[in-house]
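Q: What changes when adenosine-5'-triphosphate is included in the input?
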Amino acid sequence: MVFEKARAKINLTLDVLAKRPDGYHDVEMVMQSVDFCDYISLTPRLDNQIVIRANVPYIPTDERNLAYKAAHVLRMHMGIFRGVEIDIDKRIPVAAGLAGGSTDAAAVLRGLNHLWQLHLSLKELSQIGEEVGSDVPFCIYGGTAVVRGRGEIVEPVPIRPAFWVVLAKPPLAVSTAEIYGALDVSSVDLHPRANNMILALQSGDVQAVADAAGNVLEPVCFALYPETIRVKEQLVRLGSQVTLMSGSGPTVFGLFEREQRARRVYNTMRTTLKEVYLCQTC
Ligand code: ATP
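A: The predicted holo structure follows.
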């Protein structure tokens, strides 16, 4: 049996450069993993089936589950047909902008690499992950990375920002396709630069991180779901040092240098929102 942590991610920057003819968007973003996780366990089966079990009823347990897809794609690539039972202990909210499904898929790829002794490198796993979903290649690596293309070009950056993170999710599920669909790329006038964020992280200056943070999908989600604006305003009012929507939303995160301040904000946010989480960058 193999256990893997499936860490959520936040976007410190998210820029959309162009819509591609294949329907995907060319993006440039700084992604950061946090120690808020789903837990995946993999148990070999005697037959050749991929079986998914989950502790929650609201994610699919058939071939629509990204964890299933990951195991299937890996088997196809390697020409092996062993069975596996995948248990998902889901903690990360779904359709929240935290890559909940992609990180489960990445954890399955890493875990099966061990279980089946495939000796694939992270780069090889990440290339296989591309077929499963755009955020999977980053989730294979975790840490801090600049991500480009439609998500398949991952450049891990060897810095370890040490922020406390409050994740605050308004009570709605937002579809990534809906938000990208409503984005008019030609009307984006402020493009957050991944390079500026990396320099800011390297400098360790939280104000520089706040200045470099940006997500071009934020105004799109805010226009469609005004509840999201209120969550951001509340975090700012309470003293969040860097405040931004993650991915296509609706989760908004706040970054803090000090644990005590983060805990205070976490406790206050919990009085008005059900889905609030306290974690750290990792
Ligand atoms: P991203 O930040 O990558 O856009 P997200 O947090 O917005 O991701 P997910 O939580 O990955 O979105 O879920 C999106 C959809 O994927 C949901 O409709 C869900 O049913 C489906 N899904 C498939 N497999 C999983 C899984 N293992 N965990 C969560 N959702 C899954």
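Observations recorded in class: The pocket of adenosine-5'-triphosphate is lined by residues 59-60, 64-67, 88, 94-102, 104, 135, 176, 247-248 (CB under 6 Å).
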